Amino acid sequence: LRYGCDLFLLGGSPGYSAAVSVLTLPLYNVAEKWQQRERDTQKRLSPKIAKIKAAFKGDEQYLILSTFYRQNHYHPIFALRSSFGLLIQVPFFIAAYSYLSQLEALRGAHFAFIKDLGAPDALFTIHGFPINVFPIAMTVINCIAGAIYTRGFPLKEKVQIYAMAVIFFVLLYTSPAGLVLYWTMNNIFSLVKNCYYKIGFRFKKRIIFAFISLFCLMGIYYILAIHKGNESLRALIALAFAALAAVPWFLPLIKKVPINLSGFEGRGKKTFAVFFLAALILWVLTGISVPAALIAASPQEFSYIDTYTTPLFFIYNTALQSMGLFVFWPLCLYFLFSNKMKPLFAVFALALCFGALCNVFGFPGHYGLISVDLQFASTPSHSSGETRLNIAVLCLIAGVVFFLFMRRSSRIIISAEALCLFALLGLSLSNIFAIQKEYQQMETFHANKQPEITSIEPLFHLSRTGKNTAIIMLDRASSSFFPYILEESPDLMERYSGFVYYPNTVSFNGYTSLGAPPVFGGYEYTPIEINKRNTTANVDKHNEALLMLPRLFSEAAYSVTITDPPYPNYSWKEDLRLYDKYPELKACITDAVYTDFWLAEHDIVLPSTGDILKRNILWYSLFRAVPLPFRWGLYQWGDWCAPVSGQKLRLLLNGYSVLDYLPRLTGFIPAHENTALLMVNNTTHEGALLQAPEYRPVLNVTNYGSSPFSKETEYHINIAAFKRLADWFDFLKTEGVYDNTRIILVSDHGSQVSYVTKGKTGLPQNFDNLHPILLVKDFGASFDIKTDMTFMSNADVPYLALDGQIENPINPFTGREI
Fold first, then answer.
1. Which terminus of the chain faces fewer neighbouring Cβ atoms within 10 Å, N or C?
2. Closest Cα partner for 605 from 637, 650, 642?
3. pLDDT tens-place string over residues 583-642
4. pTM of this prediction exceeds 0.85
């Protein structure tokens, strides 16, 4: 799809139409044979049928006709075979219609004399009424092609063709010119194809073979000479094109190879059983088993997404998609081909299903954590040894399958398939029950869904005359980027006035679950100290860390606000019941709350997280099922082969919108009252490229900045967060509350990037997940930002926050001094 989109945008609809027409030529050939068989059958039977209808009426006519059909091995339902040619086009038309009619990239794009492919062509007007020429041309070409195709056909088939031409004219008259251009070119290719069939040429097969080979050579040229994507993936696609170009010329030689599958040819039911069970295995594996295992690893992440509350919906949706891909369409093709071809279908399906099982369970890969938008923590990669072993095992599986077919071991094959199918179903059901159980537990604190945001109202309030303490945890913000951020944007030196940057800071863990508790609870909640208290459950100690600072500030008469606490009650979705016992504390969720409002204000349309998952979970299943060398090509840096991807941008906006709205989310208390704000934000967690120099989200980035990390998404999200915070600091200065506010910017851990930084940063650490950011601005500090090389950790945050405000602070849960 990615390369098809590129081909469409570069070569226009003719390229896309040519691709579809060429790739479906074999199906058209088969459909044409079935259609001709149906015409010949009806021509042969029609005289007798006419006599029966003339001589008999009612039930007698029905019984005699049924007997006549049975004697001639015919059934009236076989008349549908005459529609095969049309049915083959329907899926491609539906796909093109749904895709091209809403494609943002077409808006404003021009092709030849068409000014805007995203709107009706309206080439001229009559009395102010726009006339769309392309739909008219499309209909004329369609009628000409139909006239040639139906020459010598019965009247009802001619009427069917012309009626469809009129229907398409009505449907597409006001459609975008890009869509109509695609269908017009499709009709032109149909016209050429019909001329080819009706007028007749010698060496028909060779002409088709030459046409396919020419198309493949054009594809190879485009991929290698024009496209600028990943080199290994381009080479792989070019190799596939070369193989496709060679296959037609070798088919006559393959037919001469003395391979005998006639044993299965004569066993229609067993051949079908082998094929059908293989299709069911592929369906259950990719549509149910792999998605269920993915979601069962963290059901909370896939719950309450958009309007989809239960995560089981995504399994149901993927199961439907996979059924179409591995059951419905393969069965249609299976019955479309002759009995001689069906054993080959069965062999191929069997090898494919056992190969997929081997890839999923035998070669799962080691990719680390995967986020809810199906992005791995690190780029999928495999050693050459793993890849060679994977290919060798798959070749062995293919050999064993072929050997069993040659030995006509249908009983062994069917038994093995049934065993695998039942095992997959059992594993899937087990995961589904686990998902449902955890989902039911979540329902208790998700009963009251937050209403949709229609305006931005102040969420927290700072004091104009008292003391304000703001702790902002930027999840996964990297300290090593900060010097480069200041170098690219020197204005931040003044905007971050009063801040001290501590580059020599470490975290106690590279993940939020263990990196965040020390940020809020101090050294008593580092992993080693948590483990010492082995009589208290870990979840209780985690909750203590999240509650310690809010309780201390609240008990000292501070007004306290907490946003997006990390993993309360070890829940991925924020479970704010933790604060029910402390009504004086204001706890709220901001992540993803303002995303749609921000998109509406900036006139940007993005797919929702639910829509992304509805599409990409199947891609993830295919990723797990294909051989190792193909996985990176499917993954595509987390885009999952999406031609136009907005998933990264949406996930970034879940946190970015909050930082961007900070001035509007901030109110002020006129009374002399102290406040404390503990905020967690995920802007620096979700990678995306942004528009420099301000690093704001846009659909198409044209300026990547001047940093050495200009193509690193991690750098972009870090500088974006620090710039939006600088906007907030400017706002606080304007409102006169910057000086009486202590601000601590910290992260639970850092991040790893692909840029080789050893010896280049001049800092004690490299870019890694144990190197968090730590910036501190004290009350009244006004100097330009400066650097302090004191050895620190993010567990120093509670001390830094409380110092000078609460005398001799004591942890209310352990009684130990902070």
1. N
2. 650
3. 999 999 999 899 999 999 999 888 888 888 998 999 999 999 999 888 887 887 777 876
4. no
Residue whose structure tokens are 């696609």: 237
CB atoms within 10 A of CB 733: 14
What is the Cα–Cα distance from 527 to 540, expressed in whole angstroms? 14
SS3 700: coil
Q: Encode 440-461: b = buried (16+ Cβ within 10 Å), e = exposed.
A: eebeebeeeeeeebeeeeebbb
Per-position b or e across 31-42, b if 16+ CB within 10 A of its CB: beebbeebbebe
The answer to whether the beta carbons of residues 683 and 724 sit under 8 Å apart is: yes
Q: Are 479 and 715 in contact (CB under 8 A)?
A: no
- Tell me the C-alpha distance between 95 and 83, whole Å: 19
Residue type, 610: G
Q: For 588, phi and psi rounded to 5 degrees?
A: -150, 165
d(CA 457, CA 561): 15
Q: Tokens for 117, please give them.
A: 């492919």
Alpha helix segments (H runs only) across 324-372: 329-336, 342-357
In the block, which residue shows the tokens 């961007």? 660
Rounded CA-CA distance 708/712 in Å is 9
The gap from C-alpha 508 to its chain's centroid, in whole angstroms, comes to 33
Both tokens of 266, joined, read 């004569």
Task: Report the sign of the C-alpha dihedral through residues 682, 685, 686, 690, in that order.
Answer: positive
Scanning the structure block, which residue is given the tokens 């998933």? 647
pLDDT score of 266: 47
Give the CA count within 13 Å in the CB-facing half-sphere of 709.
30
Alpha-carbon gap, residue 795 to 808, rounded angstroms: 17
- Kindly list the distances between the CA atom of residue 656 and the CA atoms of 20, 681, 687, 731, 809, in Å, as whole numbers in the listed order: 41, 8, 11, 17, 34
Preceding amide of 693 cis, omega within 30? yes
Dig out the tokens for 276 from the structure. 């059908």
Nearest to 10 by CA among 606, 643, 634: 643
Q: How far does the chain reach from its first CA to its final CA, in angstroms? A: 57
Secondary structure (3-state) at 474? strand
